[in-house]
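Milestone M4 deliverable, item 7.
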Amino acid sequence: MKIPTDLLIYAQWSGILTIVSLVMTILAFVFGWGFRFRLVGVTGFMGLLTIGIFTLKLGLITHTEIPGARRYSLVYDNGANQVVIAVPPQVEESQIEPTLRQAASDLYSPGRNALGGDNKLTIRLRTILHPEPGISRPLYLGQIRRSLFSREDENMEVKIFTDNLAQLPKTENGEQAKIDN
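Output delivered:
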């Protein structure tokens, strides 16, 4: 027997059972059945279950994995249109744009709003440099701006700050330091 995996089917059947339960509850009140208040609880529970299954269907999205993207950590998110993510200082220049695109895909949410802005989500990528012991300095390496309203934004604006890339730590032979993910 093949069991459907589409949650919309389960939400529809749960909705049908909720309506049946509601009809039974109304009949119980009309005819004065003794268990009518139990049916009120059953109907309320079924309504909640139906809403839960339906919203679960809306909330499940597929995760897109961008090749070449580096792991990042979320530093700041105002829940609207500004996000800052961090990567280690050993990041390669070729990993910056895929990491920004990965973050733009991961952090998209239809619940974000533009707080007096231009309807764009701005994600900035930074690292922390330690020029001297006890001193930390943030260094922004790039940013991406995407639409707040469209999941599939084809017009993302990516900026890589090449001046700041030159400040990343180098190895002994002059190449940029490399580290595995």
